[in-house]
Task: structure prediction
Amino acid sequence: MTRDELVTYWRKSAEDNYRSMLNMFSSGEYVWSLFVGHLCIEKLLKACYVQTVDTNVPRIHDLYKLSDRCGLEMTEEQKDALQYVNLFNIEARYEEYKREFHRKCTKSFAAKSIATIEELRTWLLKKTNS
Result:
């Protein structure tokens, strides 16, 4: 695949995850909606990586590390948001964190978290569109 095709692939996959996140939220699957929201941001960062660095994306899931490897200039708020969303990958995946995450993952918590994901998504879509 060409670089442009890879960017398109990662963006499309992120968009599929974004729709799934919204559908899961609507059906009350708050934990999984946030997990998939993390995937959406991860894939947009990988699109950014392909566009600005190399076609061989790192096989990591840490959003902050990915953004750093992309060389993205970020505000402190964006850095904090990436660290916050990064927790959804860990807390939804590993048993020792799952029970506590299920307890705190109410509809209002998920809605607030999705708003953060949407802000990051908008920012990264602009970055990979330029």
Summary: Helices lie at 3-26, 30-52, 63-70, 76-93, 95-104, 107-129. Residues 49 and 69 are 7 Å apart (CA to CA). The chain has a mean pLDDT of 93.
